[in-house]
Amino acid sequence: MWMYLGLLAALFLGLHNLCKKHAVQGNEVFPVLLGTIASGFLLLLPFSITSFYFPEYTKKIGFYIATISWKIHGFIFIKSLIMTTSWVLAYQALKHLPITIVTPIRSAGPFFTFIGAIFIYQEQPNFLQWIGFFLIIFSVLLYSRIGKKEGINFKKNKWIFAIIGATFLGASSGLYDKFLIQNLHLNPQTLQFWFCWYTILILLVILSITWFPNIEKRKEFKWRWTIPAVGILLQTADYFYFKALQDPDALIMLLSAIKRSQILIAVVIGGLIFKEKNKRKKLVPLFGIMIGVFLILYS
């Protein structure tokens, strides 16, 4: 069951990436990011209020947001710091790079998660899983050669380093999610609600330094319908992902790989919508990544 939930998370993440590309294109990154997280928070806020006044009802429908200790708040705040840094790097990279380059690099996230799952959670990979993960990494390297044809030098372009950093931090957060869900026994909606709250606070601090005082930057910001859509789609994807993690049998290394199937939506549909270059050539490493994911699932 947890694998199907992972595929649902991948579907909504793929749609989320398309909306995110539209939201940040030619736009100010930090207010866009704040708008997306605030939209997700507002989506969850009614459940928090209802949980306070009608706890039995929210427990019955499966959306109860529990009261947690300050220690648990601290753990969630750490996740917010990790993911805020990852998102800031990823949004900046997405603003300056084609989605058909950014998304495949992000697809290397399962490799970092894979290594962490071995050393932290002692998850045991088999032969096919090793092949699958290295095939994903090799396919990402093929994308770097295609990227050079679009004027993107992977060794000198700072946005490439930004998206690699974002990928590593995102993978670290994925490993941390398993600890929060399985060790601390947080339900998905409780984790999502407080995560959004602390992320908003962190972003407000950043914006108060970099954006609010700058009149020119404020004028450059453009509100788009995709900003709240990104937040809603992300929270929907995270809900299914965290529900999958609640299963004691769920392997974070496989779940992380399953989520990468979102790349099919981003590269194929995204390439057509945003009219990006070399779409056919990008299908070759795309299939490499998909075969790698298939081997992991098959194993």
In whole angstroms, the N-to-C terminal distance is 16 Å
Query: What is the helix fraction of residues, given as a range?
Result: over 70%
Strand count, sense and barrel status of the largest sheet are: none
Number of domains: 1
> On the 0-100 scale, what is the average pLDDT?
84
Q: In percent, how much strand structure appears in the residues?
A: under 5%
**What is the number of beta strands?**
0
Query: Which regions have little confidence, pLDDT < 50, spanning 5+ residues?
Result: none
Element pattern in H and E: HHHHHHHHHHHHHH
Number of helices: 14
Would you spell out the secondary-structure blueprint of this structure?
Elements: H1 2-24, H2 29-53, H3 55-61, H4 70-96, H5 99-106, H6 109-120, H7 127-148, H8 158-183, H9 188-210, H10 215-220, H11 226-245, H12 252-259, H13 263-273, H14 279-298
Protein described:
It is a single chain. With 299 residues, this protein is mainly alpha-helical. It has one domain. The protein is built from 14 helices and no strands. Helix 2 crosses helix 11. It is globular. The two termini are 16 Å apart. 48% of the residues are buried. The mean pLDDT is 84.
